[in-house]
Amino acid sequence: MSAPSQARGALRGTSGRTIVADRAATVVLWALGGFVLLLLGAIILHFVIASIGVVSPSFIFGDPSDTELGGVGPLLWNSVYMLVLAMLIAVPLGILAGIYMSEYAGDNRVTDTIRFAEEAISSVPSIVVGLFGLIAFVNLTHWGFTALGGALALTLFNLPLMARLSEQALRAVPADERSASLALGATKWQTIRHVVLPLAIPGIVTGIILTAGRVFGEAAALLFTAGLSTPTGYNFGNLNIFDPKSPWSPFRPATTLSVYIWKTNSEGLSQFAAQIGDGASALLLGSVLIFNLGARFLGRILTRRLTAA
Amino acid sequence: MNTGDEMTTTTRAQDPIEASIDPSPATLPPRIVPVGPGRTADDARTGSPDVAGVAAMPKVAAEAVSITYGTKLAVRDVSLEVPERSILALIGPSGSGKSTFLRCFNRMNDLIPGARVTGQVRLDGIGLMDPDVSVVELRRRVGMVFQRPNPFPMSIYDNVAYGPRRRGASDRAQLDELVERSLTRAALWTEVKDDLRRKSGLALSGGQQQRLCIARVLATEPEVILMDEPASALDPISTLRVEELMRELRELYTIIIVTHNMQQAARVSDRTAFFNMGEDRAGYLVELDDTRTLFTNPKNQLTEDYVSGRFG
Amino acid sequence: MAVVGEAAGLAGLHVRPALRDRLDLPRRVVFLAAASMVAIVFVLLGFIAWQGVQLFVQNGYPIGSVISTTWSPQDAPISFGVLPFVAGTIGVTGVAVLISAPLSIGLALFLSEVAPRWARAVVQPALEIFVGIPSVVWGWLGLTILVPFLRTNLNGLGFTLGFSWFAGSLVLSIMILPTITTITYDAFRAVPQDLRTGSLALGTTRWQTIRHILLPAARAGTLTAIVLGLTRAAGEALAVQMVIGNRPTMPTSLTQPMTTLTSQITLDMGNTVFGAPDNNVLWTMGLILLAISMIAVLLIRKLNRSGGRR
């Protein structure tokens, strides 16, 4: 038997090239984890400081102004309003699509095509979604720039995400629950409706909030659909949805908070542009945090309630 | 087995890696490295208290080893010794802590969050629980074969060469030789020699995969091999093949094997240790003896019940 | 099934299902909902493709005319060369991924191989918040923090940096970091634990195990993550537009202003007349962007399929 040819190190001791490389790698990987936390911390801190003296009730609820700091009230309202409009379309449609993908879809070409479409829509750049909206919801419909057009463009982001998250939530329901119901003689739809869907609700609700958070700050798709102007001086008592001055009307231009940040910067009209940008960005970041924490919190509560019941 | 009675002198390879792995002489501990086939002469013990052939310092020893996972005691106070070049089988019912105990010898328990080992484990007298022990070097000397064959997703050749390469071996001819020798010892060479580099380790049958994993361990030239139910996922024919292999390996290595299969323990091992689960659900060592004695004439009633199939 | 409760006895099993069950209305409804996404894709592709070729159809420009590095939409000689934008998009995206991929893969390794539970419980939510930060906010940070920082602090290096290719890539690299990280992380988690213990038991270090076992085994997933990162970066509009300076020439240096497909569309769409050549060329750019993203989707599918087979 011939000799082994490998170096044999000492059992004690921690030197050696491989050990040093391992140590170094560990340090670098920890540093990366720390870097992410530091970066996020720095961003949040920056906006907290920047919003001092800017973000106040009159900033959040007030009207924009060219001569003084003004506020972002109508823009914030437009963001919320269009988000709700978009969710009204995307949530039911997305859940239904998720049900199909999770409960009915077989392993065949139809499913494959739908899956491909889902992936394709999610990866279309938002500016291209905006271009599509410009043709489909502005020019062809002769609506011009409207909140509804913007909401429909947002739906393109919401829908595939909502479908995917619903599908995941539904798939997570154990097979036992389904077979138990089917074994009792329930039809497939009854099983879905009364057994699977209720169990999937925490996941779906979390999905809704995450989806909402994802599109709340969307801007590029709205530039050419909801427009760069908005009526101000909203009177929330005006419930006539066909009155372009009504905050409830879907048929009016509606700049959102995030579009406003971009516009403030690119047009640079106000001498307070920097403060407005900081304040509005802080508000957006705050909303992201709220959406994120909300999704976690609500998901946890619903799970607890459902599993306890 | 006496470690000083034979000596196969071989030239130590002039490997540049060696210099970087070896710590400064000042930190070199007194090592007692057995000298035999596949071992090098200058590893022979220097400065050790019991030099000239004091009979059988155990190759491996456990001293009052207890293992806890979080707050759960898994193994309680086990002490045993394994002589060089022998096979020790650990048998016992599920939950008796055999596999957990086995993992002390190469400190694989380190990888489990919350696992804590107390007591001492020794290899050639060196305390493996000491903080200055390099687990990397330890695991090179104490190889392990797992319950489920786990070849890497790469060619058969690369699988076997994996360990040596990580230690810096890059000489093509030496590697070729090492791979062939390891596969031959693992009784796999003739079956795979034609597509060593083309065939993935994952494309082999279960029994072949397990022998590949053994070859992979042999290629790192260990002194001790731990086997955690190495045949439990194999068909009967592959199992026999692996058992045969173990008996051959016994000539060169110290082997500790965990098995559920008492016939297997009886067939392959020199000595057998019987573990049981105590009232506190912690595993403990009931009895250790020559395999023949333990199976035919156990001292402990529990052992007798177990080997005669009355429980477990 | 519909006969349960009708006391039909065994014979009931042979009763023809009720019309309602044969139609299976719920199935049709959920199918339509899912299929609506296919319809959307077709309509979107159709509209963008149609408008994207109008420069050639309606305005009569030869297709070759856009393959030029000269962008002069107003001053004679008029030229609609889109190459500066295409090159800009490729350049700013490529450098962003070069910065981001190593960081993201390292971060994914940290989360999957190194971090104790508490650290993972802190870093993962932080990444989720990163994903949610709107692109205008990134642009705003780039504009108000990064660009001034580069301009004032890097002068000692012998060049001036401000609105630049580098600034754009830096902003993008942070934006795609969570995307690449989470997908790579999933790929690492999918590698069987057996392989890790197998490698460590042979006396290799954690880093050796990562380099020689984990990274090769997760290659398909890592590539998918990088392609997704590239796609997201290429399609990003506002954040990039706010920091790259928007100079419509071929990109020359990381320190110089440049432009991209997205930023040109963003800037000029509102300033041109729908149907005019200088407007239609923007749609052509949109079509190029769409083509890039569709190619990426196909590529990812292919990667996933080959990854699944191994």
Description:
The complex is a heterotrimer of chains A (309), B (312) and C (310). By secondary structure, chain A is mainly α. Chain A has helices spanning 17-51, 57-61, 73-104, 109-123, 126-139, 147-171, 175-183, 188-216, 257-267, 273-308. Chain A has 2 domains: 16-52; 57-308, MetI-like (MetI-like fold), CATH 1.10.3720. The radius of gyration of chain A is 26 Å and the shape is globular. Chain B is built from 11 helices and 10 strands. The longest helix of chain B has 14 residues, at 172-185. Chain B has a domain at 83-108 and 131-307: Rossmann fold (3-Layer(aba) Sandwich), CATH 3.40.50.300. Residues 1-8 of chain C have low confidence and may be disordered. The chains are: A mainly alpha (309), B alpha/beta (312), C mainly alpha (310). The B-C interface holds B 106, 108, 111, 113, 136-141, 143-144, 146, 148, 150-154, 162-163, 166-167, 213, 216-217, 220 and C 116-117, 192, 194-195, 197-205, 208, 212-213, 216-217, 310.
Helix percent of chain B reads 25-40%
User: What's the CATH superfamily of the domain at 83-108 and 131-307 in chain B, by name?
Assistant: P-loop containing nucleotide triphosphate hydrolases
Radius of gyration of chain B: 20 Å
Question: Gap between N and C termini of chain A, in Å?
Answer: 70 Å
CATH superfamily of the largest domain in chain A: MetI-like
Largest sheet of chain B: 6 strands, mixed
**What is the second-level CATH architecture of the domain at 83-108 and 131-307 in chain B?**
3-Layer(aba) Sandwich
Number of helices of chain A: 10
> What is the average of the pLDDT values of chain A?
86
Distance between the termini of chain B: 34 Å
The overall strand count of chain B is 10
Helix content of chain A: 55-70%
Q: For the record, what CATH class of the largest domain in chain A applies?
A: Mainly Alpha
Largest interface: A-C, 88 and 88 residues
Largest beta-sheet characterization of chain A? none
CATH topology annotation of the largest domain in chain A: MetI-like fold
Rg for CA atoms of chain A:
26 Å
* Top CATH class of the domain at 83-108 and 131-307 in chain B: Alpha Beta
Run of helices and strands of chain A:
HHHHHHHHHH
Shape of chain B: globular
Fraction in beta strands of chain B:
15-25%
